[in-house]
Amino acid sequence: MPTMPQKIATWQMVHPTLKDKETGEVKPGRFEKTSVPVPSLSPFEVLVEVAGCGVCHTDLGYFYDGVPTVQKPPLTLGHEISGTVVAGDEKWVGKEVIIPAVMPCRRCILCKTGRGNRCLAQKMPGNSLGIYGGFSSHVPVPSIDLCEVKNRGDMPLEHLAVVADAGTTPYQAAKRADLQPGDKVIVVGVTGGVGVYVAQTAKALGAKTVIGIARNPEKLKRALKYGVDYVISSEGKAPRDIRNEFRELCKKNGLEAGFGWKIFEVSGTQGGQEIALELLSFTGKLIVIGFGMAKNEYSMSRLMAFDAEIIGTWGCLPEYYPVVLDMVLSKQIDIDPFVEVRPMSQIQSVFEEVHKAGSPARRIVLKPDF
Amino acid sequence: MPTMPQKIATWQMVHPTLKDKETGEVKPGRFEKTSVPVPSLSPFEVLVEVAGCGVCHTDLGYFYDGVPTVQKPPLTLGHEISGTVVAGDEKWVGKEVIIPAVMPCRRCILCKTGRGNRCLAQKMPGNSLGIYGGFSSHVPVPSIDLCEVKNRGDMPLEHLAVVADAGTTPYQAAKRADLQPGDKVIVVGVTGGVGVYVAQTAKALGAKTVIGIARNPEKLKRALKYGVDYVISSEGKAPRDIRNEFRELCKKNGLEAGFGWKIFEVSGTQGGQEIALELLSFTGKLIVIGFGMAKNEYSMSRLMAFDAEIIGTWGCLPEYYPVVLDMVLSKQIDIDPFVEVRPMSQIQSVFEEVHKAGSPARRIVLKPDF
């Protein structure tokens, strides 16, 4: 039976990593275990008992790289959340849910015209949902866009936290790419926390060919089991070398290299973006999923000559979550090999670990142990 | 009554402008009046008696800037052609027509899947249609994609030559932009030979607001009569200044500046492209129509944060030509103020004039006077 807590236990980010502009002195970011009051809930809100919350690169950006949160610290980070509704909107109490990472306002013209994923009044736990975030015992959220989890079999509820962001962003990206059965796909950064799901999503939606590009040969080998048909290691190679390798691979395998490839750039690195731009050709689409601060040099007129496109994609519409959840529960998209659960009390060391690793082998989901 | 000529009279480009790589010596390009045999016509080809052929920047690229033609010189340039069918495919003989600037092969997978405008086996008069081009008395072309001209009233047939390229490219661009009634549009390079039609096409398709950007204040004033609601002169301004001016203009006129603008870049200049990139924001689309060799510096990840797109567009599907022709004949798109007819014998001086002017006030159409 769901129980309403007295307080919300939480790991607050007291302050992020701070750098003194004049002295250059760095003050490390700090988490603190504390508790905050349970807010009063409107009939359209619920309180979710957190089963797990994934550690995303966006969280690292807030904690280490000076990316500002909408709600000024102290606040609790974390937006990749699964859990159980324990109070609020009666229709939902007792249900297991995934909380969309970005929740549209459902009132503005962008929301009304199908662009709610980029609603400018959207709320994101651990950023713009007041002080509340997923690295807590509970989180209060609007109920309208919750994704109900049913028939999960032996899949741990906390694993499904990754559906809230890493698992759904690729689906929105595929929609933006107008991915069709028979499509030819390249994933740059295929071994990363989101890349592994881009390849699997493309395959699940019927892509005929998926070529994965990344640096690490070991991880590339693993990718071949999860949606990727061919791999190219980018380690130590110039974009032009990779283009030539791509053409040879196509020739050898009877693939048309010259046009129509849909390229997903997931790395967010300058190197990855340069590879993606180099591979973009006639009637191609380059979908930008990864975020980074680098600038690229590119002749825009090439897009004209190629009749090609570069398409940015942000988040995922909550209405797509049930579709992705089905794909995950039916193992069309396999998440278990890419998820690792740790106690939430290890938050500080886990952040440090992921920050150092750059791209860890598995997504770490923190499970409350207050 | 149509008559079959003995020979095709033509102004051949003997050679383009040549620059000696070692000495740097420039040998000016040369046209020569000559005649070529009438080729034998298949049942799927026609011979068109040229009424007029527009001088396009693409022709200048071939003649002055070292852009190579597919057919090596000598060949006849010119791909913006209207005329009358005088021989060949019987269904067409006697009809007035516009010849699409790029003619798809109609056999490949791109053609079969609606991307014929970027067919890689496409033929373009004055480039890849053997030695034949529009600056001639006649031109032999496939009949499958001809656009019949009916009920043209007092519109001179030679004026309609501009529909073959400058008039139709904006329509394809609008399709690529998914232009909808009520849309908010910016045209960068709105006073150029194609820009004037982009604004009118957007308006004809129901755009609510069209903002025109260009340097010349006189030409901008004229644009206000042809599809443009507001103008911003870019003369001597940095992209950021123009963005601020755009925001002020929006504020003053009750327009939402923050999202959803469709920006057409028609100038092909680095300056114009930088303005377009600066104006691109949330859920926006930037459609690249203009061609130039410049490179741009841009952070691709902005597209991700904006959920925005950059879309290149090439040519126009022949199946759209009748739609555009209707818009022109019904004066939804006004071409007369932007066309000037000259005798074809002035080809050399006209090329020099247009090359020097950069962006002439009117498109010059050459009318055969052999």
Helix content of chain A: 10-25%
Briefly note the structural class of the backbone of chain A: alpha/beta
* Multimerization status: homodimer
Q: Could you tell me the mean pLDDT of chain A?
A: 96
Instruction: Show the largest interface.
Output: A-B, 41 and 41 residues
| Pattern of helices and strands of chain A | EEEEEHEEHEEHEHEHEHEHEEHEHEHE
Number of helices of chain A: 10
Q: Could you describe the largest sheet of chain A, including whether it forms a barrel?
A: 7 strands, mixed
Shape of chain A, please? Answer: globular
Portion of residues in beta strands of chain A equals 15-25%
Instruction: Please state the CA-atom Rg of chain A, rounded to the nearest Å.
Output: 21 Å
Q: Which stretches of chain A of 5+ consecutive residues score pLDDT under 50? A: none
Distance between the termini of chain A: 19 Å
SS elements, strand count of chain A: 18
Question: Would you write up a description of this structure?
Answer:
The structure is a homodimer of 370-residue chains. Chain A is of the alpha/beta class and 370 residues long. Chain A has ten helices and 18 strands. In chain A, the strands form four sheets. In chain A, strands 5, 6, 7, 8, 9, 17 and 18 form a seven-stranded mixed sheet that branches. In chain A, helix 3 (169-176) packs across helix 4 and helix 6 packs across helix 7 (270-279). Chain A is globular. The model of chain A has no long low-confidence stretch (mean pLDDT 96). Chains A and B meet through strand 15, helix 8 and strand 16 of A and strand 15, helix 8 and strand 16 of B. Strand 16 of chain A pairs antiparallel with strand 16 (309-312) of chain B, so a sheet runs across the interface.
